[in-house]
Write a structure and sequence with these properties.
This protein is of the alpha/beta class. It has two domains: 216 residues, TIM Barrel (Alpha-Beta Barrel), CATH 3.20.20; 138 residues, no CATH class. It is 48% helix and 9% strand. It has 15 helices and eleven strands. The strands form two sheets. Strands 7-4-3-2-1-11-10-9-8 form a nine-stranded parallel beta sheet. It has a two-stranded antiparallel sheet with strand order 5-6. The longest helix is centred in the C-terminal third of the chain and has 33 residues. The protein is globular, with a radius of gyration of 22 Å.
């Protein structure tokens, strides 16, 4: 599963190659836009819009499309953009107060929300056939989601043929089995559908992340703000709600949750397989899918181990890392002390050979993406660390949110993670 890290800091797009999820609300008024190093997904800002106004008031489909075109041209690497959908949680429809947030309420029916969600996608695509604007399946009850699927079908939208389809209004109930049942119902209704979970938190990913192609979350920022978390070496701020270092540690927690749910020992002691049910595809296609899944799982564990070692080098204790990632201290200790002499690129090439990913072009391209993302992250680390070393030499300390470099109390950094250069092979 690909994880898009939600952020309200657009400039992070210039600082990391990791996939980011950025709202149109944070981009629309900027005179100068960042140039992305990695993939960017655009959130339409539906939650903010419906919460504040009870409808789409501040942005028309034409205005949204015009801005999306600007983002494609100036930011670049836009993976997809969400439509101007209508969430279906009761508080969105009826209004009210939740904590400090006041919801205006739309006063409409759930069915009308579904119709407007589907209708908006048609409007946006009629204005911009060349932009990757994805459908969103909305609902409150399981039958609502099934009805939304039917509405897309009647509108001539083949959800199974879409590169990715978002599913919304599930994040507030992901600690129950209901959200997993909704995801399963959508997959049953549309075999082969590739789902993106909007706003999925770690608990939800641990429960049903294996059913998703990708997801996003801003939970890391809310957690740091509400719990007053500040990492060692972060100065100038009372918490890490805007800290790239903490965001990447949260990403490790997500990877750990998903990897723990996906991977189970194979009965014969061979390579691990996932718990996903088989789909209506031919035997060779199924074998390629399983091979790619196995490769992704091992690559995710590799990335998790690297991230743990980086956090340890940056001055975090084993206890702190264990608490943030939800892993045992013994496991964190083993990963922090693991040998790092082998270059990441060499390990990934070995994994590609192990899983035999070269015969199918689509599988090979997907593996290329995994390799490029992870090696770019390592290159990011090296570049930021080099700048950080230069700053420390001049007597300046790292500040919160300035990157993923070392703190003043960082441990010595082992070298050689990516000694052999070049792109994926």
């Amino acid at each position: 599963m690909r994880f898009f890290m939600g952020t309200h800091q657009p400039n992070w797009a210039t600082m990391t190659a990791a996939p980011l999820f950025i709202s149109d609300v944070r981009l629309r008024d900027r005179k100068t836009l960042p140039q992305a190093r990695g993939e960017i997904a655009i959130d339409s800002g539906a939650f903010s819009e419906l919460t504040k106004y009870g409808g789409w008031v501040s942005t028309t489909p034409r205005e949204y499309v015009d801005r999306l075109r600007r983002y494609h041209e100036e930011i670049g690497n836009i993976a997809f953009a969400a439509s101007q959908d209508w969430m279906c949680e009761p508080v969105i429809i009826h209004g009210g107060q939740v904590g400090r947030i006041r919801f205006a309420g739309t006063g409409l029916s759930t069915l009308e929300h579904l119709r407007r969600t589907v209708g908006n996608l048609l409007d946006l695509r009629s204005l911009a056939t060349d932009l990757a604007i994805i459908p969103t399946i909305q609902g409150h009850l399981r039958t609502d989601y099934e009805r939304c699927v039917e509405l897309y079908d009647r509108a001539g939208i083949d959800l199974a043929a879409e590169p990715v389809v978002a599913v919304g209004s599930v994040c507030r109930r992901q600690n129950t089995t209901e959200a997993g049942e909704i995801i399963a119902a959508i997959i049953e209704a549309v075999p082969g559908i590739r789902l993106h979970g909007l706003g999925i938190k770690t608990a939800g990913l641990g429960a049903y992340g294996s059913s998703l192609l990708s997801s996003d979350s801003m939970a890391w920022s809310a957690t740091a703000r509400l719990e007053g978390i500040r990492l060692p070496g972060c100065h100038g701020h009372k918490n890490c709600a805007n800290c790239l270092r903490f965001a990447f540690l949260w990403r490790l927690r997500v990877l750990a949750a998903v990897a723990g749910h996906l991977t189970r020992p194979a009965p014969d002691g061979g390579p691990a397989r996932t718990q996903k049910g088989s789909r209506d595809v031919d035997r060779d296609g199924r074998a390629q899918r399983l091979a790619l899944t196995g490769f992704r799982e091992e690559a995710a564990r590799l990335e998790l181990g690297i991230g743990i070692r980086w956090a340890y080098e940056d001055g975090m204790s084993v206890r702190e890392i264990a608490e943030l990632t939800g892993m045992s201290r013994a496991r964190v200790r083993r990963m922090a002390d693991a040998d790092q002499d082998r270059p990441v690129l060499a390990v990934l090439r070995e994994l590609r050979r192990k899983w035999d990913l070269e015969s199918d072009p689509a599988t090979r391209a997907a593996a290329d993406y995994v390799v490029a993302t992870l090696t770019a992250a390592v290159a990011d680390r090296a570049a930021v660390a080099q700048r950080q070393d230069g700053s420390n030499a001049r007597g300046r300390s790292a500040s919160c949110g300035s990157g993923v470099g070392r703190s003043q109390n960082a441990r010595p950094r082992p070298r050689g993670l990516i000694r052999d250069g070049g792109g994926p092979k």
